[in-house]
Design a protein that fits this description.
alpha/beta; IsoCit/isopropylmalate_DH_CS; two-stranded antiparallel sheet; Rossmann fold; NAD binding; about 325 residues; oxidoreductase; magnesium ion binding; 2 domains; Isopropylmalate Dehydrogenase; 12 strands; IsoPropMal-DH-like_dom
Length: about 325
């Protein structure tokens, strides 16, 4: 049985890493069909819109998206494409796993953790943004809701339960931000009480940053609010070698978008130097999401085996291979 997914090739190095990823998915025999849709600078040039309606329609129809990095042009009038997509489809949970891989520049070994970040409210909702006429004062409202907190914390516990994870850590700043962060922590405690088989830990965000650097092995699943999650998930990527090895999933009730979380790297675009691993690992998440756990595991093991063999690795991983050389090496191990 085949399944159609929406494919967004993206900007900069996006098309190159997408070509590599689709090549491997085809070799994997995942039974996927691709409906390509434009977004970002390419869409702006072709359709006059960063996120044209035809692309939104494709996502709504297929419900599963594999997306390369996109560029939001600098300047007034342009809203972040990623933020807009998350709001439009109510993709409330941002899921960022990090796992240690062989032959990377990481300072740590045996890291295996997941950050679950609330994705639709908090500081990034940017309500009431205002700068005073004299340019001296800026104001932006941060909004956290019981509904938003409850569903993302419950998602984190259900994820832990489904994957045999033992602990969930709620990261907050309720000692100082007693309203918004306080509500999030209160709801997290309530939800945690429904999962007595899973250890629950509370940690203030500044301590969490220090603990992640000093003893990252103590973490399993981390759940937190939008701004804290954005920062912590990049910190966690640094524990395993950087954003080139960091995938991300944006999960909602009716749609899911799987992406490489790094940028478009325009300085190396078109040169065949880009590491496709982040998008490939996002494809692993996607395969798990659509019920292809066996294929997801095959792909994950092929990536690990290729890195262990140091076969055709890209420059950021210490090799001299091109993007497609690396992809072919992975495909050969499927």
């Amino acid at each position: 049985m085949t399944q159609t997914i929406t494919v967004i090739r993206g900007d900069g190095i996006g098309p190159e890493i997408m070509d590599a990823t689709l090549f491997i998915l085809d070799k994997l025999g995942a039974g996927l069909q691709y409906e390509e849709a434009d977004a970002g600078v390419v869409a702006l040039e072709k359709h006059g819109d960063l996120m044209p309606q035809v692309t939104l329609d494709s996502i709504a129809r297929n419900k599963v998206v594999l997306k390369s990095p996109l560029t939001t042009p600098v300047g007034g009038g342009f809203t972040s494409i990623n933020v807009s997509l998350r709001r439009h489809f109510d993709l409330y949970a941002n899921v960022r796993p990090v796992v240690s891989f062989p032959n990377t520049k990481s300072r740590y070994e045996n890291i295996d953790m997941i950050t679950v970040r609330e994705n639709t409210e908090g500081a990034y909702i940017s309500e009431g943004q205002e700068v005073s006429a004299d340019g001296e004062t800026a104001v932006s409202i941060t909004r956290v809701t019981r509904k938003g907190s409850e569903r993302v914390v419950r998602y984190a516990f259900e994820l832990a339960k489904a994957n045999g994870r033992k602990k969930v850590t709620a990261v907050h700043k309720a000692n100082i931000i007693k309203s918004t962060s306080g509500l999030f922590l209160k709801v997290a405690r309530e939800v945690a009480a429904e999962y007595p088989e899973i250890e629950f830990q509370e940690m203030i965000v500044d301590n969490a940053c220090m603990q992640l650097v000093m003893r990252p092995e103590q973490f399993d699943v981390v759940v937190t609010t939008n701004l804290f999650g954005d920062i912590l998930s990049d910190l966690c990527a640094g524990l395993v070698g950087g954003l080139g090895l960091a995938p991300g999933a944006n999960i909602g009730k009716d749609a899911a978008i799987f992406e490489a979380v790094h940028g478009t790297a325009p300085d190396i675009a078109g040169q065949g130097k880009a590491n496709p691993c982040a998008l490939l690992l996002a494809a692993v998440q996607m395969l798990e999401h659509i019920g292809q756990q066996a294929n997801a595991e095959r792909l994950r093991k092929a990536i690990i085996a290729t890195m262990e063999a140091k076969d055709s690795l890209t420059g950021d991983l210490g090799g001299t291979g091109s993007t497609m050389d690396f992809a072919k090496a992975i495909a050969s191990r499927l």
